[in-house]
Specification:
heterodimer, A: about 110 residues, six-stranded mixed beta sheet, five-stranded antiparallel beta sheet, about 55% strand, B: about 110 residues, mainly beta
């Protein structure tokens, strides 16, 4: 089982739609969770951290389910500019700042 | 402007050659990292450095070497021992190596072996 698993997509959605991505992780002792966004042929950029109680940033909502070992990202009112690959990132136990990256879920928002 | 720079953006290498990828940051970050990204795979950690004059192997260090002589700089050498070097190489940094620190990425270098 991969340490971090994501559906690669692509998810093709119309502008204004709500779309959700899930990501599962294998190590139940993982400490921190993030969503990064990566545009085509660009570097990843932090979208948001994921907190145990869930958190929201504008149109984006992230949730953590420790019991089932998954995190989710919900995008409301999607925009053309949201088209990108969304990387699920987990900090496993063991100290330090080493991160484990998922392969990413590709989102395409269309007119 | 503060940030992380990587050069060159594209790099072509002949088989059997060593090449060095540059990574510089002016964010005053202590920790720096090198990843490679291949199609269909997540980013994989090559080397990381928590402080000047110290570095550790990541998950795929074979065929690579690094140095950290200055806080601002963390160059990566891809040696001829790396059998499949064609990839997108990303450098990152964080304020420290603590558990809550966000990593920020440079724009990357695409290496192609001819």
């Amino acid at each position: 089982r991969k340490e971090v698993e994501q559906d690669p997509g692509p998810f093709n959605v119309p502008e204004g739609a709500t779309v959700a991505f899930n990501c599962t992780y294998s190590n139940s002792a993982s400490q921190s969770f993030f969503w990064y966004r990566q545009d085509c042929r660009k570097e990843p950029k932090l979208l948001m951290s994921v907190y145990s109680s869930g958190n929201e940033d504008g149109r984006f909502t992230a949730q953590l389910n420790r019991a089932s070992q998954y995190i989710s990202l919900l995008i409301r009112d999607s925009k053309l500019s949201d088209s990108a690959t969304y990387l699920c990132v987990v900090r496993p136990p063991g100290g330090g700042n080493k991160l484990t990256f998922g392969t990413g879920t590709q989102l395409k928002v269309e007119l | 402007d503060g940030g992380i720079t990587q050069s060159p953006k594209y790099l072509f290498r002949k088989e059997g050659q060593n090449v060095t990828l540059s990574c510089e940051q002016n964010l005053n970050h202590d920790a720096m990292y090198w990843y490679r990204q291949d199609p269909g795979q997540g980013l994989r950690l090559i080397y990381y450095s928590q402080i000047v004059n110290d570095f550790q192997k990541g998950d795929i260090a074979e065929g690579y070497s690094v140095s950290r002589e200055k806080k601002e700089s963390f160059p990566l050498t891809v040696t001829s021992a790396q059998k499949n070097p064609t990839a997108f190489y990303l450098c990152a940094s964080s304020i420290s190596s603590g558990n809550q620190e966000t990593q920020y990425f440079g724009p990357g270098t695409r290496l192609l072996v001819l």
